[in-house]
Automatic annotation (TrEMBL):
The gene is tmk. SUPFAM superfamilies: P-loop containing nucleoside triphosphate hydrolases. Belongs to the thymidylate kinase family. InterPro entries: P-loop_NTPase (IPR027417), Thymidylate_kin-like_dom (IPR039430), Thymidylate_kin_CS (IPR018095), Thymidylate_kinase (IPR018094). Transmembrane segments: none annotated. One of its GO terms (cellular component) is cytoplasm. This is Probable thymidylate kinase. Its EC number is 2.7.4.9. CDD domains: TMPK. Residues 5-187 form the Thymidylate kinase-like domain. GO terms for molecular function: ATP binding; dTMP kinase activity. GO terms for biological process: dTDP biosynthetic process; dTTP biosynthetic process; dUDP biosynthetic process. It comes from Vulcanisaeta moutnovskia (strain 768-28).
Length: 199
């Protein structure tokens, strides 16, 4: 099964996924975790570019095209082989990130969806959510901030996009402004329930 964990910057995706993997593995599941931008050459280019102030001036379509190109490579080069080998694959970020972030930058959802024509949807998409003040507090402790992490108003807009997409598509939304164990347990139960439905 392929699971995507989405949410704005600073909501705790990396930490939650790391703990979730340990919990799943301790219960006998073969788990592979990954993230976007990926470790492909396109992903590394994106990661480097997002730390440069000059990327602020880039047209939003450049971000959308780069992220989607990386996503296609990520899925077919990394995710699908693991799925074919019987792993439960969990990715930190996937298509909802582009729909929300580049949607918040003003790009039409119809065009962003069209870019994803050749990108399979996850079996389960989970949205981690926390108040904007909480994530801003967490981000303030980071040494280097990417272009999308420095603007409170922008992150608020991205959060609105994600919650709207969750409502439209019936994605579960997990309150990430709690203790980690509770968050991980809630996501674990969602994954186990979904696995029971597909097996």
């Amino acid at each position: 099964m392929f699971v995507a964990v989405e949410g704005i910057d600073g909501v705790g995706k990396s930490t939650v996924i790391s703990m979730l993997r340990k919990k799943l593995e301790s219960n006998g599941y073969r788990v592979y975790t990954t993230a976007e931008p990926s470790q492909s050459p396109i992903g590394r280019l994106i990661r480097d570019w997002l730390l440069k102030p000059s990327s602020n001036a880039a047209h939003p379509s450049i971000f959308a095209l780069l992220f989607t190109a990386d996503r296609v490579q990520h899925y077919y080069g990394e995710v699908k082989p693991k799925l074919d080998s019987g792993y439960l694959v969990i990715t930190e970020r996937y298509m909802e990130s582009t729909l929300a972030y580049q949607g918040a930058m003003g790009l039409p959802q119809e065009w962003l969806m069209e870019l994803h024509r050749f990108v399979p949807r996850p079996d389960l998409t989970i949205i981690l959510d926390a108040p904007i003040e909480t994530v801003i507090g967490r981000l303030s402790n980071r040494r280097e901030l990417e272009v999308f992490e420095v603007n409170k108003e922008f992150l608020s807009k991205v959060r609105e996009f994600l919650l709207r997409r969750a409502s439209t598509n019936n994605y579960p939304v997990i309150n990430a402004d709690r203790d980690l164990e509770s968050i991980v347990n809630d996501i674990y139960e969602l994954i186990i329930d979904a696995l029971r439905r597909v097996i």
